[in-house]
Fold this protein.
Amino acid sequence: VNWNDSVGKEYQNGSNIYINRNLLNGTASPILLSSSTDSANGWRSASSGTGKRNVITISDAPEAGIEKGFEIAGNGTTTDVAQDNVPVSTGNTYTMSTWAKGTGKLRLQSGNGTYKSKIYSLDNVTEWTKYSWTFIAGSTGGSSTNECTNIYFGNKGSGTMQICGMKLEEGSESTKWIDSEIGLKLSAQWEETSESTKWIDPG
């Protein structure tokens, strides 16, 4: 039995293991918009790199519910996809994450004006692997303006990689991916996944 509370935490199987709300939109089946378009409800091409970004269907999704992701082919410069104006609270801790495989330098970046990032080197990674980075909004995660930041996922090197299941969540741990539409449930509800039903007190 899974129980979802009003702030998007999902308590699983009689324990207090929970899933934090995903602050990013359009992660189950992302849409790539033009670079000049506000990406509040989608993703835009970012950075000056001349590599290629394409939306792809994910047939071997690492987590249930993920339908599409991005294939990013780098050419030695940075090739990103970004979501702008993501709400954060300056001074709070956040963790961004993505599943990835392929070859290149995976970059996870945050900031609005000034930027900070974490880079992982991928060398022919053939299985979906989760990569995450924890930062403080307005500090180790770059600047935040009007309690918003921009979130970037990209390839800073050569080679081609695939990413899916992007997530930004409050806290210092990377929890299971969940679509933002699920995380925005306004009231607690039951989801029965077994024959027995047990109420779980989120405490």
